[in-house]
Amino acid sequence: MMPFVASVLITFMAALTGGRFRPDAWYAELAKPPGLPPPWVFPVVWTALYLMMAIAAALIFITEDSPARTAGLVLYVAQLGANAAWSWLFFGRRAMLGALFDLLLLIVLVALTTLVFFPLSFWAGLLLAPYLLWLFIALYLNAAVWYLNRAAPG
User: 34: Cβ–Cβ under 8 A, 6 or more apart, which residues?
Assistant: First the structure.
């Protein structure tokens, strides 16, 4: 039970850190790309993804101690940092291009985390797959918003 509680706390602390930076009037004025989901979709999807991420990390916590387990957990924490940084960059700093580069780093970190998790726990790796898929959707949205608003600050 402790690994699950620790995973949930660590994961949702990262979520709350990133969640401090939200869309505001600046974002509302930006041109948006086709395919942008309605605003209510984002908290629903992210809540589900963060829960799946926490469960995946808990499944890795309970595996036998090994260099792969340590590497997986280090990658997991690193991707949490990159995840939280995206909201700060995009909404807090209004640095759309910086957020785009952060998102590329995040995708690499999540892909590596998933690759390390799979041999340790099939289910942990599988639980990260929707997250990785969603990040590619986020990549399209971030790149498109940046492209459509290149002249805007950020």
Answer: none
CATH of the domain at 137: 1.20.1260.100
Would 38 be classed as within a structural domain? no
Cβ contacts of residue 107 below 8 Å, gap of 6+?
132, 135, 136, 139
Number of domains in the chain: 1
Alpha carbons 136 and 123: distance in angstroms, whole number: 21
Structure confidence at residue 11 (pLDDT): 87
Q: Which tens digits make up the pLDDT trace of 53-111?
A: 999 999 999 999 999 999 999 999 999 999 999 999 999 999 999 999 999 999 999 99
Question: Domain containing 15: what range?
Answer: 2-30+43-148
The C-alpha angle with vertex 98 and arms to 96 and 104, in degrees rounded to 5, equals 105
Strand residue runs (E) in 28-124: none
Whether the predicted pLDDT of 154 surpasses 60:
no
